[in-house]
Amino acid sequence: MQKASARRVFAENLRKRRRARGLSQEALADLAGLHRTYVGSVERAERNISIDNIERLARALSSDVPELLAESR
Amino acid sequence: MQKASARRVFAENLRKRRRARGLSQEALADLAGLHRTYVGSVERAERNISIDNIERLARALSSDVPELLAESR
């Protein structure tokens, strides 16, 4: 099986974690200081997100960066 | 102790791993399809590197993305 791209792994983990926290995209965006439409596009793996924004989202979710980038087994 | 920023963690891990592989910044840049000066600035944590470029560097080092973002203990 081909390894998923880091973008897709992040997108999937972000969505899963956000939902587990009971947050809308808008609520997460507010917590992270980002725009709602930006969070949506990251969750669709459309954006080549930067490390600083990955970190903002991880903090907003009380998660950490390596965890959000780890492929689920 | 304050948690290091993801940028700094990545910068440090990248340098460590590159040296462990016996690669110069130029050799790593060639392997990853990036510019030597770009790799240098990433290792100084000056750049807000994108997820796609993090992945290129991880592949060039036969490492993986979460590993390069994990804080060393």
How would you describe this structure to a colleague?
The structure is a homodimer of 73-residue chains. The first copy, chain A, is mostly helical and 73 residues long. Chain A contains 5 helices and no strands. In chain A, α2 (25-32) crosses α3 and α2 (25-32) packs across α4. The radius of gyration of chain A is 11 Å and the shape is globular. Chains A and B meet through α1, α4 and α5 of A and α1, α4 and α5 of B.
Question: How would you describe this structure in keywords?
Answer:
63% helix, 73 residues, homodimer
Give the topology, please.
Two copies of one chain form a homodimer.
Chain A (H helix, E strand, L loop, with lengths): L5 H15 L4 H8 L3 H8 L7 H10 L4 H5 L4
Order of helices and strands of chain A: HHHHH
Q: Enumerate the spans of chain A where pLDDT stays under 50 for 5 or more consecutive residues.
A: none
Residue share in β-strands of chain A: under 5%
- The Cα radius of gyration of chain A reads 11 Å
Largest sheet of chain A: none
Measured between the Cα atoms of the first and last residue of chain A, the distance is 12 Å
How many DSSP E strands of chain A?
0
Number of helices of chain A: 5
Chain oligomer state:
homodimer
* Largest protein interface, residues of each chain: A-B, 18 and 18 residues
Secondary structure: helix percent of chain A: 55-70%
Given the helix and strand composition of chain A, which structural class is it?
A: mainly alpha
Shape of chain A: globular
Residue-averaged pLDDT of chain A: 95
